[in-house]
Amino acid sequence: MSKNYDFVVTSGGIGPTHDDITYQSIAKAFNLPLQLHETTVAKMKKYSRPHKSQPTFDWNVPSPALTAKLRMAQLPTDSNIPDEEQVLYVKEDLWVPISVVNGNIHILPGVPRLFEALIEGMKPRILPRLKDPEGRGMYRVLFSTPLAESAVAEYLTSLAAKIEPKGIKVGSYPRWGKNRNIVTLVGNDREYMDSLEAEVAQGVQGVRVQKEGEDDTDDETDIKKDKDA
User: Fold this and answer.
1) 23 and 107 in contact (C-beta within 8 Å)?
2) DSSP structure string for 152-189
3) Which of 3, 58, 65, 144 is least crowded, fewest Cβ atoms below 10 Å from its Cβ?
4) Of 64, 75, 57, whose CA–CA distance to 20 is shortest?
5) Average pLDDT, the chain
C-alpha cells in the first residue's frame, strides 16, 4: 500500500501489551530499528496519568508497568529522515504521536476518540494535498429498498452499465435482520446523480434516505414482504 498510495493509515496495535505489535511489525517490514523517542516519553509524563490501580507508579523507578508504558514510545526510526518528519504531534494536549514510516504510512491508535482526534488534528496537513479540499467531489446517494438483493440485481446491473461510464458506482448492501436493504450511488456529478432519484427509487421500489436505517420499522407488512422476497 505504501508503494501504491500517497497516504496510508493504520489503526491500533500500539498499546503497552504483548499483542500490540504494530510499531514492531512496520519497523521490521521497512528494516528499521525501534528507538525510544524521548520527546514522546516527555509528553507521556506530562499528559498521561497513572491508572487508579497503580497508585505507587513512579516514572523514575523501574517496574513492569514502566516497561510496558515505554513500549508505546518505541518508534520505527530512520536516521536519514529529520525527526519532525517521522513523528507528528497534532493535538497540543495529547502525548500520543503519529509515527510516519516511509514518508506516507501514518500509525494511529485504535481507540476511536483518539483516532478521531488525531485525524482531525492532521487536517491542516492533509487538506492542501487534496484536489478537492472541501470534500465535495465524492457524493453518495442512498436508497432504502424492501426488496431482497436478488430481486434488484437485474435492475442494478442495467443501471450500472448505464451510469458507471460517467464515473458513478452502484452498490448494494444487505442489512441482516433488518426489513430494508441499501442501494448506493457514488460519484462526483451531483446534478446528474440527483436527477436519477425518481428512476432509481422506482427501480428498487424504495425511497431515497439520508442515512442507513432512518426508515426502519417493525411493521409486520414489511417483514412479510422481506420474507416473501
Assistant:
1) yes
2) HHHHHHHHHHHHGGGT-EEEEE--TTSS-EEEEEEES-
3) 3
4) 75
5) 90
Apex 113 CA angle, 111 and 116, nearest 5 = 105
* 136 confidence band (pLDDT: 50, 70, 90): low
Instruction: Give the Å distances, CA to CA, from 129 to 85, 90, 124, 134, 145.
Output: 16, 17, 9, 11, 38
Supply the pLDDT for residue 35: 97
- β-bridge pairing 8-11 and 105-108: parallel
CA distance 73 to 76: 10
184, 171 Cβ separation under 8 angstroms:
yes
Cα–Cα distance for residue pair 10/35, rounded to 1 Å: 19
> 111-135: per-residue pLDDT in tens?
999 999 999 999 998 888 776 655 5
Q: Domains of the chain by range and CATH?
A: 8-129 (3.40.980.10), 139-228 (3.30.70)
